[in-house]
Design a protein that fits this description.
This protein has 39 helices and twelve strands. With 714 residues, the protein is of the alpha/beta class. Among the domains are: 53 residues, no CATH class; 141 residues, P-loop containing nucleotide triphosphate hydrolases (Rossmann fold, 3-Layer(aba) Sandwich), CATH 3.40.50.300; 44 residues, no CATH class; 104 residues, Arc Repressor Mutant, subunit A (Orthogonal Bundle); 115 residues. The strands form four sheets. It has a five-stranded parallel sheet with strand order 2-3-4-1-7, with helices on one face. A three-stranded antiparallel sheet has the order 8-10-9.
């Protein structure tokens, strides 16, 4: 914040800035600045690295960031910024999803800029460029809290591109208990779901970040209305339909739009002319880069292949291993390109080996358009799916960004996909691979002006028989992978497969039941055990029951004293689903621990889940816990919104309707107050949801809430 930066720091920082090689913009940016297409890097904000340098503290190495967007002061302000700020007023974690160049970074940076100008503490990190990371990326989720815990006032954390480490960041649920810490996460679309069967009906829910409430998940809709607003605010003369053909109609490239708007003001040219000039600019840059990095004729021959291959994969943020491109000249060329800051080397950081990536997917797209034609692009993608390390990750990205292309690649590569060598692949990549091949995916959505989803467009390529053939052909390899995998890896694998094709999951379970029965559960956490048994049960309930009974003593003796109530609840619910008597036995053995669990630090939602799962195993114990924690429940309900209370009651209704009615009777005064304060819309939603789960309970709440004009209107 400005108010903690001394004048001396600022003067020193300006001097230090001159000596920082890492602070230079990307060469393409320098050319665009020189040509007058974009403004130079603004100096209105001091970088953390400069503040450290001003105190003569050596900053960590700083990677060049993404292509520079327009000056923050003039950047078109998106409505999502106000939505994020509003959500931060009510809660403290927001997840924003959007495709590449949809504006995620501009929104995140504009938000950070506004917060800093208000003298707020802001911490920023980016997993693609590694900006702001002072540790290895996989350590970052656990380190975030350590970074800011000493700051007593409000602090904002912005982490971009968490799709690289989605599982690790999914463990940040503890942040919700620290309301002064505001966390914004950005990601490419996480288009995966976990469908679980409850009492004969299916409930769809997000695979990751279930602890973030739906209102705090923002799906960035960058459509023609957003483009039109940007054109209007920029006072641009471009016609909307024409500009959409240039920047893309389905997924508008806002970075290219930014260049086009600024260039038209500087040069007075039309979009097609500017686009062609930018293309020439990129060609000139790559020619100069080739001359400066290629020492031999072998280097020159390898240059186009290296940049072309890297750009195709980097469009989807998939790193390329050295071994994917043959040739002795490649190694030294990659090293020289890294020194030029053209590519990022991911040596031993995110992936543990040596991989390379162009730092921004849209920069990669510019390079690819110059280096390779569409047929060459297809060949690179096809070869990587058949030979590359991250083949499952790649087709997972192609699903939402190039679905039609993926469909044709799968169709024409059927034989190669069956023969593909899986011996060196991780079980995670195999799971991603099989999931995509076996599943239909929605790739196009349409919304009304009010934000309601009105239409899905499906691209149908599901080839379930191909997925089953791959499983049969590679049965021995799958057996080996499952025997070597951890409980966590196995449950993640079956989660993906079962969601895509339950019959395929059953076939894998049947073929490898002996291997699964032999898994040691003694070192696994109760959360991992619960998820493991839950997904095995989804494919084969009898096998899950056998595994639970074979590990009976281990499950009974698991220490639950250090686990949070959400983990305990889910553990008991999964055990009860396969062996209710064993679940009751565990509950009886640990009843004292369960009664003493501190509910004061949990959210009302987590308490609802906990009580629901306990009631699933032992109704009497759940009632006793409710009575022991009456005061805590009263406070939680008093502080909750009517929407949160509705969700809380629903979590318990499915397990024990009588317990839910008892809670309503004991806390009827609070419920009356909440209903009297609620809007008509909120009351409608409350009674609709409660009546759907328990009509008699809904009637009881109506009777006890007394005369209420809004309620009677409803």
């Amino acid at each position: 914040p400005d108010d903690v930066i001394s004048v001396e720091w600022e003067l020193k920082a300006k001097e230090k800035r001159k000596s920082y090689d890492e602070e230079k913009p990307h060469p393409i940016e320098e050319l665009l600045v020189k040509w007058g297409l974009i403004e130079p890097l603004i100096e209105s904000l001091m970088r953390i690295e400069e503040a450290l340098a001003a105190q003569d503290i050596e900053p960590n190495s700083f990677r060049p960031g993404r292509l520079f967007w327009p000056d923050m002061e003039r950047l078109s302000r998106r409505d999502e910024i106000d939505k994020i700020i509003k959500r931060f007023d009510e809660d403290n974690v927001v997840l924003m999803e959007g495709y590449p160049a949809s504006g995620k970074s501009s929104i995140a940076c504009r938000l950070g800029y506004e917060l800093v100008k208000e003298s707020k503490w802001v911490y920023y990190g980016n997993l693609t460029t590694r900006v702001g990371l002072n540790c290895q990326p996989k350590e970052l989720p656990g380190r975030i809290f350590e970074e800011v815990k000493e700051i007593k006032q409000e602090v904002f954390i912005i982490i971009e591109d968490i799709h690289h480490l989605v599982k690790e960041f999914d463990n940040l649920n503890f942040i919700t208990d620290h309301k002064h810490i505001k966390l914004l996460l950005t990601s490419r679309p996480l288009k995966q779901y976990d469908v679980k069967e409850y009492f004969g009906h299916h409930e769809g829910r997000s695979l990751y970040f279930q602890w973030i409430v739906p209102e705090n998940k923002i799906e960035l809709k960058t459509d023609k209305d957003v483009v039109e607003k940007i054109l209007r605010e920029a006072e641009s003369s471009f016609k909307l339909d024409h500009i959409l053909k240039t920047i893309g109609e389905d997924q508008p490239n806002l970075l290219l739009l930014s260049f086009l708007i600024q260039a038209s003001k500087k040069k007075g040219k039309q979009a097609d002319e500017i686009k062609e000039e930018i293309r020439k600019l990129v060609i000139d840059h790559l020619d100069r880069l080739k001359k400066s990095t290629c020492k031999t004729s072998q280097d020159q021959e390898a240059f186009r292949k290296v940049i072309g291959t890297l750009s195709v994969l980097s469009e989807f943020e998939v790193p390329m291993e050295r071994e994917f491109i043959d040739g002795g000249a490649v190694d030294s060329l990659l090293e020289r390109l890294e020194k030029k800051k053209e590519i990022l080397s991911l040596k031993g950081r995110i992936f543990g080996q040596e991989y390379y990536l162009i730092s921004h997917s849209r920069l990669a797209s510019l390079y690819r358009n110059v280096c390779l034609d569409e047929e060459e692009r297809r060949e690179v993608l096809k070869d990587y799916i058949i030979q590359g390390d991250f083949f499952g990750t790649l087709i997972g990205r192609l699903v939402s960004e190039a679905g039609r292309l993926l469909k044709s690649l799968i169709k024409e590569s059927r034989k190669e996909l069956i023969k593909r060598d899986l011996s060196q692949a991780s079980i995670e990549e195999i799971g991603n691979f099989l999931e995509v091949i076996a599943q239909n995916y929605a790739v196009h959505k349409e919304y009304t002006d009010s934000g309601h989803l009105v239409r899905y467009e499906y691209i149908l390529w599901a080839d379930k028989e191909l997925a089953r053939e791959i499983v049969r052909v590679h049965s021995d390899i799958l057996k080996q992978k499952l025997s070597q995998a951890s409980i966590r890896e196995i449950r993640a694998f079956f989660r993906k497969i079962a969601w895509a094709d339950k019959k395929l999951a059953k076939e894998i379970v049947r073929l490898h039941s002996d291997t699964l029965k032999q898994k040691d559960l003694s070192q696994a956490s109760i959360r991992e055990i619960g998820l493991f048994l839950g997904y095995i049960a989804w494919a084969d309930k009898e096998l899950a029951r056998e595994i639970a009974r074979a590990n009976r003593n281990t499950l009974r003796q698991k220490d639950i004293s250090q686990a949070d109530i959400r983990e305990i609840g889910y553990f008991l619910e999964c055990i009860a689903e396969v062996d209710k008597e064993l679940a009751k036995e565990i509950v009886r053995l640990h009843s004292d621990t369960l009664k003493q669990k501190d509910l004061s630090q949990a959210s009302i939602r987590e308490i609802g889940l906990f009580l629901g799962y306990i009631a699933w195993a032992d109704k009497e114990l759940a009632k006793e816990i409710v009575r022991l924690h009456t005061d805590t429940l009263k406070l939680k309900l008093y502080l909750a919104s009517i929407k949160e209370i509705r969700a809380f009651l629903k979590k318990i209704i499915w397990a024990d309707k009588e317990l839910t009615r008892e809670i309503v009777r004991v806390h009827s005064d609070i419920l009356k107050q909440k209903l009297s304060q609620a809007s008509i819309r909120e009351i409608k939603a409350f009674f609709r949801k409660i009546a759907w789960a328990d009509k008699e309970l809904a009637k009881e709440i109506v009777r006890m809430s007394g005369k209420n004009t809004k309620k009677e209107t409803v």
